[in-house]
Amino acid sequence: MKSKNIATFFAILAAALYAVNIPFSKLLLTHVQPTMMAALVYLGAGLGLLIYGLVTGEQKTGKPLTRNELPYTIGMIVLDIAAPIALMLGLERTNSANASLLNNFEIVATSLIAFFAFKEVLSRRLRIAIILVTLSSIILGFEGEGSFRFNTGSLFVLGAACCWGLENNCTRMLSSKSSVQITTIKGIFSGLGSLIVALVIGEPIPNPVWIPAVLLLGFVAYGLSINFYIKAQKDLGAAKTSAYYSIAPFLGVVFGMLILGERPAVQFYPGLVIMITATVLMVHDTITLQHTHEHIHTHTHEHRHGELVHSHEHDHIHTHTHIHGGEENIHKHTHNALENHEHTHTQQLAAP
To answer: Which of 248, 193, 251, 183 is nearest to 218 (CA)?
Structure first.
């Protein structure tokens, strides 16, 4: 019980550490240009986890990357250059409360890409949640005060969410690797890529006073957040950890109001209610119980070819997956034959 309580604390702490990213980033953007900001937060995460991994020995765990995984690794790095730059550009143009909630669109992007590219099944709850998140994002995107013009800051944040959604699907192809290694690679190479972009477009190096602050924010909001998320998963499992972590956008809203003194426009509140409803549906869908039962049956088949009789013994593995989700009961049956074969040859003599 004690380990579960500690794991729950780690999951909530991971959400809280990530939630401080948006309000503090917005605060630091008054001193650091957006592309340079994106570079430094990722470098802070990568360098911080590199040191953490060397100290704890976790850099040595996990399988090394292979040549076949190189396209996914490159895709992950490129998307992690584009996403934080888009987020920082968005934060310059919209308030942190909007940006925090709009980050939830990442779930929509991840799910739709997984559906179209990897043929993953979307449950009814998740389909409804995707519609609600999209509706909330549209509401949050308008500038308000009678204007039907879409806020450009919201468009940048939605672009960042889409990049991270695609990046999630690249990262999933590397799931057998050490998460510390992957995050270190993400942070250092994506950070360096963003730094090159910043220098090419002429953004200045910030005052040295602010560089440690941005690096620290990256280590806390991206590095430590991921570390505590992984620690929580060990005792809670992926589903419960994701459920606790889903509070991050709403903590971001609270932190934005407390740290920046923001008071969102009137359309923010219906968007908030819709986003909460969508999150509840997604959490319920995530913690759906899955039970897999496996049964092995042995069958013997006899075949006659002329005077030769073949007796084949097969082990058939039947896998039954039951997904219980409220009104939905889905039963999947997987039949894997010919896992084991025993062949008996019997020679029949011709009748006299």
So the answer is: 183
Q: How far apart are CA 325 and CA 2, in angstroms?
A: 29
Q: How far apart are CA 167 and CA 131, in angstroms?
A: 21
Average pLDDT score over the chain = 80
pTM (whole model) above 0.85: no
- Any idea how long the chain is? 352
pLDDT, average across residues 162-166: 92
Rounded to an integer, what distance in angstroms lies between the CA atom of residue 219 and that of residue 214? 9
Q: By C-alpha distance, which of 2, 35, 36, 41 is closest to 20?
A: 41
The answer for residues whose C-beta is within 8 angstroms of residue 338's C-beta and 6 or more apart is: 314
- HEC string for 29-42: CCCCCHHHHHHHHH
Digit-coded pLDDT (tens) for 317-333 = 443 433 333 333 444 44
- Looking at per-residue pLDDT, the higher value among 273 and 122 belongs to 273
In angstroms, what is the C-alpha Rg of the chain? Answer: 26
Q: How far apart are CA 185 and CA 76, in angstroms?
A: 10
Per-residue CA distances from 241 to 110, 144, 221, 238, 320 (Å) = 18, 36, 17, 5, 26
